[in-house]
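Reminder to self: keep the SMILES exactly as supplied, no canonicalising. Ligand is NAP.
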Amino acid sequence: MPSMKRSLILGGTKGLGLALAKESAERDIQPIVTGRSVEEPNIKASLPENAIRIAMDLTDDESIDKAMSVLEYDAIDYFFWNAGTWPGRKSFRELSPADIDNITATNFTGPLKVLHRFHEKRELQKKPYHLIAISSASAWLIRKNETVYCASKDAQAVFVLNFADELALELPGSHATIFYPGGMKTEIFKDTKQDTTGYMEPLEVAKAVWNEVLNQKEVCREVHIIRNKEKNDGSFTLEYGPKLRGIK
Ligand SMILES: NC(=O)c1ccc[n+]([C@@H]2O[C@H](COP(=O)([O-])OP(=O)(O)OC[C@H]3O[C@@H](n4cnc5c(N)ncnc54)[C@H](OP(=O)(O)O)[C@@H]3O)[C@@H](O)[C@H]2O)c1
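Structure tokens returned for the bound complex:
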């Protein structure tokens, strides 16, 4: 019998990542979930029954090393670069150096280090994989007081756009997908005053994400998940391809 497919979900303990893990299990793809809080009892209880948990803090190199030493590289078919942090609306001046480190390490450099290790191993094994990046509409929209967050989400998207061909060349049969969602009802807004009325439900978004991923034939696809702001009822539509940056 062929072994079960697996997905690796960076930041699979909450919000969209948790929904992606649930939807993965629904589709008979066993999720491997990472995050700082994987062993918290309420988080453990919320994960799919067959989820594999790996504690990993993306801002801490030692924690990344430890997590990577237990990861079963060869069994992963889908690599979700999903973890992210949002500092709330603050001017650039108001962000501390620690805030800047936290945003860039969680949203960009930490996941890059994980992917680098993963990719090296897969190259040795000659095993293709599907890389999925959860970027944001913040990558191309101009938003007030979100400078470093927006820049980190664009950096993530541009990295994957550039890496996709390299990946497919080195490991034929590989794919990359970049998603740019609008507002979702998740814990990213927990300690902020953000009004999330009319924001999208993470489970609905996760279903759309998995449908796109499993139907993709081309090497690289960009998918915008556009919230219907007029209806403001959580509904959304999908749009494809590059978007002009700098739209207000
Ligand atoms: N919510 C939105 O409106 C929205 C819109 C567009 C794009 N996005 C993007 O969607 C992705 C998921 O965000 P979300 O809204 O679902 O947020 P969320 O509910 O706050 O979940 C964030 C996830 O990232 C993990 N994470 C945060 N800091 C981490 C760290 N230092 N090390 C390891 N993992 C860490 C968290 O795990 P632990 O807490 O267990 O570490 C959690 O699983 C992010 O990339 C975000 O930029 C969100």
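Points to follow up:
The CA atoms of residues 132 and 204 lie 17 Å apart.
DSSP finds six helices and eight strands in the chain.
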